[in-house]
Amino acid sequence: MIPLPVLDSHAPALRVESLHAFAYCTRLYYLQEIERISVPHERVFAGRHLHAALEADEDGESVSLELASDALGLVGKVDCLRRRDGTHLPYEHKRGRPARAADNTPQAWPSDRLQLVAYAVLLEEAFGQPIPEGRVRYHAANVTVRVPIDERARDDLNAALAEARLLRETVERPPVTENPRLCEKCSLAPVCLPEEVRHEREPERDPVRLFPPDRDGTTLHVVGHGTNVGISGDSIVLKPREGDETNLPARGIDTVLLHGFSQISTQAIRKCVEHGIGVHWLSVGGYHTASLVPTAGQVQRRVRQYRALTNEDTCLALAKRLAGAKVEGQYRYLMRASRGDDEARDSIQSQLGGMVPILAGIPDAPDRDALRGQEGAAAVHYFAALRSLLGPQVHDDLRSDGRSRRPPLDRFNALLSYGYGLLHTAVMRAVLATGLEPALGFFHTPRSAAYPLVLDLMELFRVTVWDMPLVGSLNRGQWDPVADFVATRAKVWLSEAGRKKAIGLFEDRLQETWKHPVLNYSLSYARSIELEARLLEKEWTGEPGLFARSRLR
Ligand code: SF4
Predict the structure, then answer these.
(1) Ligand 1 binding site (Cβ under 6 Å of any ligand atom)
(2) Residues 326 and 460 in one domain
(3) What is the whole-number distance in angstroms between the Cα of residue 193 and the centre of ligand 1?
(4) Tens of pLDDT along 428-458?
(5) Which of 140, 359, 446, 504 has the most CB atoms at less than 10 Å from its CB?
(6) What percent of the chain has pLDDT over 70?
(7) What is the pLDDT of residue 49?
(8) Is 59 found in the same domain as 118?
């Protein structure tokens, strides 16, 4: 019999449920139990409803029971317990169908079996009597499978407990499972990205689409001066200074963005935390000032990030890829926007010509300082050309003589800066959702209130998520130089009407879908940002190669 290892009395007990994940896929166990990652998933909700129904069953036979063992370092709640011939039998209820042996007889799945064995051993300790078997009821097939609690079962449990505890000591994620079919039903596939890993290893293999095409919820922007965010039941309530309240179900919202001088109550913050809704504060100018997101269980992810991004070679390699993707994106956009327009192409030809040698020199940059210089030189050409993409119909007051950031000195720059502020928060959201430390980047230096890693990732999206829709909207005459701006001699910023317009343009763009040229599937820009954050993390978790590979076609 495999002996149990000596337990660390300070280590938290393992949950039996975690052993189910462990037997399903060790990586799933690691993500769920150690990194504490969870994703709302319809099968998980369905499972919870089934359990809730069973607990309500009062026929005298079915009960659920909390169990714990200090000796095993294990806790759990058995679905159902029945007495048969003087012995207790643990039952597990599953919605699906059983596995099948070679002769087609129904069997328990390995994960269900391990879970049941764990409950049986806990029950033996609690009742002081042997438990000879347990049963799993598969409701979709209307089949009950018997699981013997014999020596082999106990050995399997002890081996699993030992390995599960060992995994708690490491910061390295186990590899993706060799069985891709498991991933199709796994709630953590959007975080784990197993198909993307397989595609990188075998590029000719078409990945099965497991990453969601769009976000699960929407962003609530609170723009009105003095608007108060409160709660009522499970709804978020917006109370403007004047006018009617608006009630919005919390379940449909994944982010609350408080702009300028809007307020949020403590109760509303608590409700947001309960629902996993991130809350972010932005200044009137659109600059990110603070974020509140659930942060449990991120230490492993941050330790790996610190290890990787304190290595100069790793940082330089990532920075070259990022700068190359950024400048190529700018170049492609300029080419695309001036295609078929000889006048526009002529006016930006010298800028395009200036970008070509910069782009070619990026792979040979000796260090990050040199790379920043190249990226900056390309940006000068790009912004000079970008202004030339505005058609003759655009009002003179909406044009610009050059890039000015803090503060923006003209309306065009105010629009650019405001959109980049919104993008900063969208990227921050993705960085925090991925569990990365936003303050530790690989390209930007920590010199302002902005977070270097967020600034790094933003570089991949400035053109596609803001510059392109902004130039399009200016050319379509959607901006009013008077009503949408507040201008003084020292700076220009957006009025409330202008901010609402910019937010609408930005959110519409985030919802638009495009096809990832390497992974070959379509997804919204909102999801693209999250995808890149997760692909970046893979650069230092043993699955590199896909970060910053997407390009504007
Ligand atoms: S997606 Fe696949 S590899 Fe990743 S945790 Fe789930 S089952 Fe394991």
Answers:
(1) 25, 27-28, 31, 176-177, 182-183, 186, 188-189, 192, 194
(2) yes
(3) 8
(4) 989 988 889 999 999 998 766 679 999 999 9
(5) 359
(6) 91
(7) 42
(8) yes
Closest CA relative to residue 469, chosen from 376, 389, 377: 389
Looking at the fold, whether 164 and 237 belong to one and the same domain comes out as: no
Q: In this structure, which amino acid lies at residue 105?
A: T
Three-class SS of 110-176: HHHHHHHHHHHHHHHHHHCCCCCEEEEEECCCCEEEEEECCHHHHHHHHHHHHHHHHHHCCCCCCCC
Q: Could you tell me if residue 193 is inside a domain?
A: no
Distance 191 CA to ligand 1 centre (A): 9
The answer to whether residue 218 is domain-embedded is no
Nearest-angstrom CA–CA distance, 499 and 31: 39
Distance from residue 180's CA to the centre of ligand 1 (Å): 8
**For residue 299, what pLDDT is reported?**
85
Does residue 521 lie within any of the structural domains?
Answer: yes
pLDDT of 232 higher than 60: yes
Average pLDDT over residues 151-180: 94
Q: Are residues 269 and 307 in the same domain?
A: no
CATH assignment of the domain containing 51: 3.90.320.10
Number of structural domains the chain divides into: 3
- Domain encompassing residue 228: 223-282
Decide: 450 and 396 in contact? Cβ < 8 Å.
Answer: no
Pocket test for ligand 1, best of 18, 34, 192, 195 (most atoms within 8 A of CB): 192
350 and 252 together in one domain:
no
As a three-state string, the secondary structure of 480-508 is: CCCCCEEECCCCEEECHHHHHHHHHHHHH
Residue 283 — pLDDT band, cuts 50, 70, 90? Answer: confident
pTM, rounded to two decimals: 0.84
Q: Provide the edge-to-edge strand list for the sheet that holds 80-84.
A: 80-84, 87-94, 133-138, 143-148
State the pLDDT confidence band at 38, using cuts at 50, 70 and 90: confident
Specify if 37 maps to a domain.
yes
Please give the number of the atom of ligand 1 that sits closest to the Cα of 26.
8
- Identify which has the larger pLDDT, 290 or 403: 290
Are residues 274 and 303 both part of a single domain? no
